[in-house]
Amino acid sequence: MHRERGTWSPSQATLSKAQTVLSATEASGDLYRNGLGMIASENIVSPMVQKIVSSDLHGRYAEGLPGKRYYQGCDDFDTIESLGIQLAKKVFNTPFANIQSTSGTVSNIGALKALAKPGDKITAVSTADGGHISHARMGAVGLRDLNLSTYPWNEERMEPDIDGACALIRELEPRVALVGQSVFLFPTPLREIADAAHEVGASVMYDGAHVLGLIAGGCFQDPLREGADLMTGSSHKTFPGPQGGFLLSSSEDPVFQRKLNTSIFPGVCSSYHLHHVAGKVVALAEFEEYGTAYAHDIVKNGQAFASALAAEGFDVLAESRGYTASHQVLTRHGDTDSGAGAKAARLLEDAGIITNMNMLPGDTKALTPSGLRLGVQELTRVGMGTLEMQEVAKLYARVLLHSEDPSVVKQDVSLLKSDFQTIRYCFNEENINGYPF
Questions:
Q1: Which residue ranges does the chain devote to CATH 3.40.640.10?
Q2: Model pLDDT for residues 10-36, shown as the tens digit of each residue
Q3: Integer Cα distance of 408 and 350 in angstroms
Q4: Which residues of 331-365 are buried (b: 16+ CB within 10 A; e: fewer)?
Q5: Could you read off the pLDDT of 288-302 as tens digits, one per residue?
């Protein structure tokens, strides 16, 4: 019997593999739809962004820049990317924006490619103190073969020791002074660091991946006006778009801008995932309308949640500074390197609360840390406010302080979440009944 190519029935073994993926995808959706997503590096996208990300653009290429492509068929995408560049410049108040990067880490690799050569010196926050892995030898810094030195750390203030950091920069005269963290509670004292860096001819790079939405919303700090020469960031944390990255600069020098563009393409990207770029553009348009309110609500919720946890009896870091000025809250659950953070994260997951264990100052083992890093940006995105933050803190206490059965607490987690199924701060706000898609 003649059969056209691609029309015959798959074997049961092959089909079962696809069904396994579909089932696991649905289960993951159920987990987050019925639970509390509180990982600080995650967020959810709006219905319109989801539609764009699922479009035909996902399989297309547009190497180059608008009007200067290596392939045909890019006129429509030129319209999309040109609008996105315009919006990014406006939202981030900057003369230069590249929106092609596929992640915050890729943005960092591209930025370091533009700023430094292998063997050059760089200063950054250590991973033990909250620096991102891309700032370390294991990540982008090592990939570029840079000579890394890390800043002394002020544990009480949860920021670089400013006098020590400036002294280090003046002593080493690095090519790049990198600031920004993965654990990011408070604005970095950037002006002082930037002054020291510029004194010795260093470029200042600010990794705003976690706090990019707070920066754009005007409620954290303004790195490009505080001395940073460029800023990298993710498009899917407090900035609530699809996964991807940004590269932004305060420089109006066309030669430097061209260097930044080429550091992304052809530097670190060939295909740069057009469906995600287009999704970023819609997210930028939504942020232009709703972003300021969203950012301020995130910070209010972060502070309310930290205070509520402390009132329940948790050891919340940075009490002397009011715990947090961002979306993040840090809690300590046992002795240094004890694995207490890992145990707490597992118990919370059993109760439908999704968090991540995290190293705190003093910890040396990433898999057995003493702490948790908690984020409120996703709960804020679905409409939870300061009153709900108090309820969530009580759920944490029931599991971790009062040793209630997590399966019992999980029922109340699901009940609380059932009232928050609408994605907000976006176009076409409506109950989508499939959150999170």
A1: 50-286
A2: 888 888 999 999 999 999 999 999 999
A3: 10
A4: bbbbebbbbbbbebbebbbebbbbbbbbbbbebee
A5: 999 999 999 999 999
Query: Could you tell me the pTM of the whole model?
Result: 0.94
Q: Which amino acid, residue 360?
A: L
Residues composing the chain: 437
Tokens of 119: 């063997």
* DSSP element (H, E) containing 95: none
At the topology level, CATH places domain 50-286 in Aspartate Aminotransferase; domain 2 (3.40.640)
Instruction: Locate 13 and state its tokens.
Output: 């073994």
Please provide the CATH number assigned to the domain covering 290-417. 3.90.1150.10
CA distance 221 to 128: 23
Going by C-beta distance under 8 Å and a sequence separation of 6 or more, which residues neighbour residue 9?
none
Domain with CATH 3.90.1150.10 in the chain: 290-417
- Cα-based distances in Å from 355 to 101, 128, 300, 422: 27, 19, 20, 21
Residue 393 three-state SS: helix
State the amino acid at position 295 in one-letter form.
Answer: A
Asked if residues 361 and 129 have their Cβ atoms less than 8 Å apart, the reply is: yes
**How far are the Cα atoms of 6, 301, 397, 423, 434 from residue 389, in angstroms, in the given order?**
52, 7, 12, 17, 24
Q: Assign residue 33 a region (left: φ > 0; alpha: ψ between -120 and 50; beta: otherwise).
A: alpha
